[in-house]
């Protein structure tokens, strides 16, 4: 990890707090009053200008989530639909879990794990177009074989959420739905606000009004550590320097969760995932599209830090993350409120779920070359300022102590499993796939 020093010194040069303006003592009270008046006047003009432009701006078109919700509204009704939801929610353990983002990478694996052990599981996913929907549909088909019904709907649809809670009495909510991706935030920032903030608030509103309230476990992200240069990242470290809009929305989610815990007595547990990878993964992740491009003979771009510093990630295998999610659910205490009223202090926790062994991206590529038996065409460039950070490294001592979390899969073994799945899934002659 010595190669990270150039990067750390570069990051340490960035000021953490803005300087304060200190007027000279020789300034007269009259001058300060005139200065204050001018600033007040200009502030007033600025606010008026913003209001004016907002009023004259044409109304924005309905967001994709709104259109999708309207299209799905007719499908999420009727006795057949309610029977499917109830059947999916039947439990042998007493635990009934609503999993949002159930057709997503982590969501699908967690849903399957919970169902296999006897929990009642109902999935919810909006099947957005951030990456290929066919992959999400394939995950959905596997979940249906396991007995999990994935409802097509959006977490911003309050009517649908309330209907689900009226149909099934959920003991837990595993909230894994989110707009993912760091770089995509530069192209479509509103989708992150809509999903990661507005959607989360909408879900918490329904949860806090339920009787009884469910315990909520939700996905945060290692991205909240942002420009923090202290490694490994600990839950006690500062998280007020986000390097991307994605990270900022995840940090906002943690603050929002704390407020609902404090005001309404919701039991809330946040999980900061560190670069999760494995079979059925996300096509926007480096290990996934590196594999795709290497097999197609296309060049891959590998980022390096300032002064040729190492770019490394704490790659965490999906099975290890699933164990952490399940352990967080099993140790979550009951919410203390009911019907929107708090009856006592409730549990609030934040945990890192990582592998605690950062690996340079160049090493990742070498492992892929080995398992694919193909030499990659590499193009090394300096990491652009697009929201990515040069390294991640999880301190998992808290999760180990409180959850019994212990990752067991290294990158070599994990990528071997991923490559095996990838070659099987994308082989046109094979139409079947399994977990």
Automatic annotation (TrEMBL):
InterPro entries: Epimerase_deHydtase, NAD(P)-bd_dom_sf. Its EC number is 5.1.3.6. Pfam families: Epimerase. Its main location: Golgi. Keywords: Isomerase, Membrane, NAD, Transmembrane, Transmembrane helix. GO terms for molecular function: UDP-glucuronate 4-epimerase activity. It is a multi-pass membrane protein. It is found in: Golgi apparatus, Golgi stack membrane. One of its GO terms (cellular component) is Golgi cisterna membrane. Gene3D superfamilies: NAD(P)-binding Rossmann-like Domain (3.40.50.720). It catalyses: UDP-alpha-D-glucuronate = UDP-alpha-D-galacturonate. It is an enzyme of class 5 (isomerase). Residues 97-334 form the NAD-dependent epimerase/dehydratase domain. Homodimer. This is UDP-glucuronate 4-epimerase.
